[in-house]
Amino acid sequence: MSRSLQALLDSLAKSPGLALLAVIADSAVADTPPGNDTLMAMRTLVSEGALNQLDFRQAWPLLERGLMGSRPSRLLSGLDSCGALPHLLPEVAALSGSYQMGADGEPVDIAAHLSRLLDLAATQNASLRVRVAALLCNLGKVDSPPQHLPTHYLHIDRCLPRIRSIALRFGLPQPIESFAILATQEMERVHRATRMRADALTALLERVDAFAEPERFNDLLTLCTCDWGAYPGQETSTYPKAALLRQAMAACQAVDATMDNGSQNHESRSLAVAAALHSCRQP
């Protein structure tokens, strides 16, 4: 009998659902998948209704533990393999079989992309809010109108209420929820950042409050860097947008330091960004 199966059996009397999640979370922490006997036992538990009365707020600490593991994709694969994912996160389960365009123009399975994104976040020792945002930021692409594919038109509008629903379900802390919403709204703008648009770069920095919340801004760039690297063929690429935005931020901070009474001026910042990036397009 495997140790994970024994641990599962030892915990069943307390809460079958939580015992199942604990084993899956441990697999993500240790980067070791459950054994076949354990997986069969978990499938039986799920089919017999072990998750039907689960308190989602009690389940969240175990999901958090798995997300913060060395291989968080094992959390998703474990939940999916035993049939628990649709019970806990039906929005994430629905991603399987949905596609988006990769950097090379080839279709990329969004569920597979999510797994790579989470594991890249782990290699970067990313914070919990980065990993939660990675889990949730593409949920609006599940039901994109077929006539718009491969473009996921208005997917952000469809994603935001799903993030709020999941946050309510699991009782997520407000800063975790708000960062997931911010990341969902801004990720594509970060990916499209270009030195030729100094005004837009400055507006992005101001919109995400990068000057007052530099740690959150760095987390946003970490998420975008991992999202970039999760696409096939870009695993070892350097993400150019992060360096671009950090350079733009430094230019803004330099001009802010010269302003009287700490006042801030969008136009002055934009001009400083244009000069720093040698942009031929003035803001």
TrEMBL record:
Highest taxon listed in the record's lineage: Bacteria
Protein name: tRNA nucleotidyltransferase
Coiled coil stretches, renumbered: none
Keywords: Nucleotide-binding
SUPFAM superfamilies in UniProt: Poly A polymerase C-terminal region-like
GO MF, one annotated term: nucleotide binding
Organism in which the protein naturally occurs: Candidatus Dechloromonas phosphorivorans
